[in-house]
Structure formats: C-alpha cells, structure tokens
Amino acid sequence: MDYGRFIFERDKKAREAKRKQHTVELKEVKFRPNIGDHDFETKVRRADTFLKSGYHVKLTIMFRMRELRRPENGYEILKRATRKLEPVAAVENPPPDRLSGRDLSMVLKPSN
C-alpha cells in the first residue's frame, strides 16, 4: 500500500470527523459578592438571553481581599441566580463545596 495515500486517507477522515462535531458555546456572566439588586437583575437577565439563545452560561463570583472571608455570600448569589433562571436553565456543573482560589463558579445549560 502507498504510504502517502494512507496518510491522505487518514487526514481526510479526521477532517470529516472534525466538521461533523458539535462544539458547546459558553458565555460567562461575572458577579461580585456585594452586588446591588438592580445590577443582579440586569446580569441575570443577560444570562437568561444567553440561555434562550442556546448557549451554556458560566456564572462566576469574583472575590477580592476581605470578601474571601465570607464565601457564603457568593454561594447565596449563585443560589438566587439559579432560582431566577430555573424555568430556562438546568445546573450542569454545581459550585464546589469549598472555595479554591478567588473565584467561585458554576455552569448552567439550557433546559429545553
């Protein structure tokens, strides 16, 4: 068998498989632990539009300095956002039990 032909066929199959694969689009919405009610509603509305468009949404809580002493504030914001987005979203990756680093995040997927 011709080795060049073998390489060509192998690469052709790889290109074909790559063309048929489906990639998951991920959008991120960032919150702060001491976010105001109006800002929270605006960001949740933005996440809602992403979810209705078919994107997965990563909700991230960014902590700074003394905010790291109270990670439960971040968990509370994620719970509030999950309750607001419950009709259009399902939790794909829940937040970890312990905070690692300065960020706390979870991923939501469209529930349709």
- Strand line-up across the major sheet: 1-2-4-3
Low-confidence stretches: none
- What summary fits the major beta sheet? 4 strands, mixed
- H/E series: HEHEHEE
Overall pLDDT level? 89
Q: Which structural class best describes the helix and strand composition?
A: alpha+beta
| Principal-axes shape call | elongated
Task: Give me the Rg, rounded.
Answer: 20 Å
Task: Calculate the terminal CA-CA distance, rounded to whole Å.
Answer: 50 Å
The tally of helices reads 3
**Beta-strand percentage range:** 15-25%
Helix content: 40-55%
What is the count of β-strands? 4
List its traits:
112 residues, alpha+beta, four-stranded mixed β-sheet, 4 strands
Descriptive notes:
By secondary structure, the protein is α+β, with helices and mostly antiparallel strands. Helices cover 44% and strands 23% of the residues. It has three helices and four strands. Strands 1-2-4-3 form a four-stranded mixed sheet, with helices on one face. The model has no long low-confidence stretch (mean pLDDT 89).
